[in-house]
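Why do we care about 3D structure at all? Because function follows from shape, and shape follows, mostly, from sequence. That is the central idea of this module. The next example makes it concrete: a single protein chain, its amino acid sequence, and then its structure expressed as C-alpha cells.
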Amino acid sequence: MNKLKAAALAAAATLAAGLALTMINPGTAAAHGALLTPGSRTYLCYLDGKSSTGEVKPTNGACQNAAAVGGTQPFYDWFGVLRSDGQGRTRGFIPDGALCSGGFTKFAGFDAPRSDWPLTHLTTGAAHSWRYSNWAAHPGWFYLYVTKDGYNPNQALTWADMEEQPFLSIDHPPMSGPAPDGYYYWNGNLPSGKSGRHVIYSVWKRSDSQETFYGCSDVIFDGGNGQVTGINNPPTTPSPIPSASASPSRPPSPSPSAASPRPSSPAPSTPGPATPSVPSGACSATYTPVGTGWNNGFQGEVKVTAGGSAITAWTVKATWANGQSVNQSWSSTYTNATGSTTFKNVAWNGSLGAGASTTFGFLGNHSGTNNPPTLTCTSP
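And the structure:
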C-alpha cells in the first residue's frame, strides 16, 4: 500500500469515527415549546395560517399583521419564543411592550396590541387540563400569570398589567409522548374572579440551563370550555391527559425573580390631543396617543384617510420635535431618521377608496418631553 492510499484510508477512518461519535453524542439540544391549552399566540397563528401546500397564509387579522412585521418564519418556529440568558427572569428583564416576544425581536410582530388575536374561551376558577409542547424536552418549572382586572388588549402589554405572582406553578411535570405531538401535562385551576378578555402569560424555566421560554395566550372568561375562535384551522381535540402520576422529586424553585430594578427615569409628560396633519391632497393622517406611556416608552395610533380619489399606497412621515424614535409598528413598516419616522402601508391596507380610512400603530421611546408628531401623508 503506498503512502497516499494509506493516508486516504486513515482520513476516511477518522471521519467515520467522528460521524459515529456525533450520532452517539449529538450534544445538548435546545429546548423548544409553548402552551397548547390555552394556545399561545404563536401556536394559534400557526394553526390559522397552515395551508395544504405547507405555506403559512394567515387569515386572522392580528396574525396577518404579525406576518407583515416579521415574515412567516416565526410561525413555523412557534415553539421558539426564548431567551438563552433568561435564568427565569421576568420583570425588569423582559421589556414592557415586548412580553409576548420575550424581547426576542424575531417574534416582535406578536407584541402588537390588538383585540383580534385568536381567543380561547374559558371559565374563571374552573379546573383545567394544561398542555405545553415538548418540541425539545428538558426538565424545568412552569409559571403561569394572568393580567389584572381592566386589561385593555388595545394597549401595549406591560408588567404593570400583570398580576405580580403566578396563579399556578408546576414543578417538573410529566410528559406524554415525544415531539412533535408530545407535551408536558398537569391539572390546575384557572385564575378565579376574572371576566372578559385577559392574557395568560407562561414562563418555562429550565433546570438544566439558563434558557427560559415566554408566551402569551389570549383568553376570554365567558363560561367557555376551551373553544378557540378567530382562526381558520381550530386545534384538534387533544387526547385525554394520561392518568395522574407523581412528578419526579425535585428541589423547590422560587417563582422567577426580577432583575435589578431599572434606573429611574423622568416621568413622561402626558401627550397632547390628537394632531391632524395638513392634507397633501391624496391622503391625510391623524395621530392619537394611546394611554399615558411607561418609563421612556409610549404607544401611538395613526389614522390614514384617502382624499377625494382612491389610492393604492400611502406613506406617512412623522416629524418629531423631541428626539423620539419608533422601535416597533404594526399594520405598517417604518424607517427612522434623525428627527423623523417614515411609515408605509403593508400589502393588505394600502388600497383605500375615496374617503376610506385605515389605522396603524407603533411603540416608541422618548426622553423628557413627548410632544405629538407633525404628520404628512402622500400617495404612493
